[in-house]
Specification:
The structure is a single chain. This protein is α/β, with parallel strands linked by helices. It has a single domain, classed as Flavodoxin domain (Rossmann fold), CATH 3.40.50. It contains seven helices and six strands. Strands 1, 2, 3, 4, 5 and 6 form a six-stranded mixed sheet that branches. Strand 3 and strand 4 form a beta hairpin. Helix 1 packs across helix 7. The longest helix has 20 residues. The model has no long low-confidence stretch (mean pLDDT 90).
Length: 196
């Protein structure tokens, strides 16, 4: 049983990663093999809209998305986590989402039936819109979505990572950290029992 966490923050060890790692820790404690994949450490190009994947089922762009695709396909559970930038997901999250079009247009919808959840981290506003977007992506791929959780750092407006220098601030939000653990545990529970 594998659970993959995709951290779509441009910052390493920021608030988004902290919440995602908390979810993965809970999943691991319940018996899952877990991995955190950080977009910030990878080369990931944007979709160029060529539509090659509609016909061939593969993306023609060669970068670290091939590695991520293999990990997504091998995982039983997925958590996509993004900070809120301009009241929506990060550019990195959008790049991941757009580049999964090849899986969406495959005959068997390669990502369907995976158990998934979404995490959004906001300074103040934009969290609900971001969660809706992330969860819509999971639903479009016909995954079983256990839910979405929002962590607020309470920092200045302008970024889900807490507006610049507030790395780690999310740890002070006990509810957010508790909700992250709930998500990790719930994904394992659904994988084990098929029930929420």
């Amino acid at each position: 049983m594998k659970v993959l966490g995709i951290c779509a923050s441009p910052r390493v060890r920021g608030n988004t990663e902290i919440m995602l790692q908390e979810a993965l820790n809970a999943a691991q404690e319940r018996g899952a093999e877990v991995e955190l994949w950080q977009v910030a450490k990878k080369k990931l190009s944007f979709c160029d809209g060529c539509a090659t994947c509609h016909d061939k089922g593969i993306c023609h762009i060669k970068d670290d998305m091939q590695e991520l695709s293999e990990k997504m396909l091998a995982a039983d559970g997925l958590i996509l986590a993004s900070p809120v930038y301009f009241y929506g997901p990060s550019a990195q999250a959008k790049a991941v989402i757009d580049r999964t079009t090849a899986h969406l247009h495959s005959r068997d919808r390669r990502l369907k039936n995976k158990v998934a959840g979404a995490i959004a981290v906001a300074a103040q506003a934009g969290g609900t819109a971001t969660l809706t977007y992330l969860q819509s992506f999971l639903i479009m791929h016909r995954m079983h979505v256990v839910g979405g959780i929002l962590g607020r750092t309470g920092g200045q407006e302008g970024g889900g990572e807490g507006a610049g220098g507030d790395k780690g601030r999310i740890r002070g939000n006990e509810r957010a950290m508790r909700d992250a653990r709930w998500m990790g545990g719930m994904i394992v529970r659904v994988l084990q029992t098929g029930k929420q």
